[in-house]
UniProtKB/TrEMBL annotation:
InterPro entries per record: Methyltransf_16, SAM-dependent_MTases_sf
Pfam families associated with the record: Methyltransf_16 (PF10294)
Organism field: Ostreococcus tauri
Superkingdom assignment: Eukaryota
PANTHER family, sorted: HEPATOCELLULAR CARCINOMA-ASSOCIATED ANTIGEN (PTHR14614), METHYLTRANSFERASE TYPE 12 DOMAIN-CONTAINING PROTEIN (PTHR14614:SF157)
Stated name of the protein: Nicotinamide N-methyltransferase-like
Length: 301
């Protein structure tokens, strides 16, 4: 998590989040845009789920009980979407700004499990047209708010997704995509024929940390990949509790994620690996995942 202090970029101690659980925070990132020499300032705010920690002037009412608790799509796993920029999202956000990870300007991106939306908004700053997706309560709260907070007006480019706003050199919009439900035919409303299969790239961070999420996530992502989306850039922050994947409890081991994608007919390649700063001994991986048939086609051409 990066914040700006005294005009400098500072890494906030992640212990802060361990201490207070959840608190309203704004993360600020300076992102170099697709047009040389232009830097975009991005602000991503997470939601206060612990009223006692509400900052003064917070947009969230300190006495508010979580209003989405009984909504469709609200689960404990979904509640993590409101909370913060997770460590894997920091890693993916940084990767997307490197030579190796930078997306081509103008590409159409779908972010899965966007949470507060840091990765998708950073990709948008760099020139991508991004649809940030998550379960409905997250999309209609933090995703909507963080797009609005960074919006520079309506996006008019042909490649922009429906209802998108200009963000940095690209654009961002939102859509509901719950991995436990079929991929919606009309994610942007009944009157719009755009499909999530129109994406060039999927991105996702910290979406498969729970074992129960691996199957629905892999099913959704691999269906999109086999349906024509070029690749998934996936950041996995391993939270498993044992080196033996079979003996860990709720948390998935990274090898389980790779195996699930391979079984689903995808090819997984490691692009980047680094140590977790929050959890000694744990690693963070960035993978490229493609449908096996697509990869063969790409390599033949
Ligand atoms: C740990 S958070 C990561 C959020 C963000 N990508 C980040 O790294 O900061 C996991 C995200 O997965 C989303 N999620 C959980 N279950 C989901 C489901 N069934 N369908 C879609 N998204 C889901 C949550 O709402 C949450 O935003």
């Amino acid at each position: 998590m990066f914040v700006e202090r005294d005009g400098r970029w500072t890494r906030t101690p992640s212990e802060h989040f361990k201490d207070c659980g959840y608190c309203t925070k704004t993360t600020i990132a300076d992102v170099r845009g697709a047009i040389e020499g232009r830097t975009h300032r991005l602000a991503v705010t997470s939601k206060d789920l612990n009223p006692e920690d509400a900052d003064e002037g917070s947009a969230v009412d300190a006495t508010e009980v979580d209003p989405y608790f009984f909504d469709d799509g609200y689960t404990l796993a979904a509640a993590t979407g409101f909370a913060r920029v997770w460590e894997g999202a920091e890693t993916l956000s940084r990767f997307l700004q490197t030579e190796k990870g930078r997306l081509d300007p103008g590409v159409r991106v779908v972010e899965l499990g966007a949470g507060v939306g840091a990765c998708g908004l950073i990709a948008a700053c760099g020139g991508a047209h991004v649809a940030l997706t998550d379960v409905a309560p997250v999309v209609e709260d933090v995703v909507r708010r963080n797009i609005a907070q960074n919006a520079l007006g309506e996006a008019t480019e042909r490649a922009a997704w429906p209802n998108a706003f200009r963000v940095g050199c690209g654009s961002a919009t939102r859509a509901t995509l719950d991995w436990t439900s079929p991929i919606p035919d009309r994610p942007f409303g009944a009157l719009d024929a755009s499909s999530l299969y129109d994406a060039d790239v999927l991105i996702a961070a910290e979406c498969v940390w729970l074992r129960d999420l691996v199957a629905p996530f892999v099913d959704t992502a691999s269906t999109l990949l086999k349906g024509g989306v070029g690749k998934l850039i996936l950041c996995v922050r391993d939270r498993s509790t044992s080196d033996d994947p079979a003996s860990g409890k709720a948390f998935a081991h990274t090898s389980e994620v790779i195996r699930a994608f391979t079984t689903a007919g995808c090819v997984v390649e490691e692009l980047h690996r680094e140590d977790s700063r929050e959890d000694f001994g744990k690693e963070i991986f960035i993978f490229s995942v493609r449908a096996a048939a697509r990869r063969e086609r790409d390599e033949a051409s």
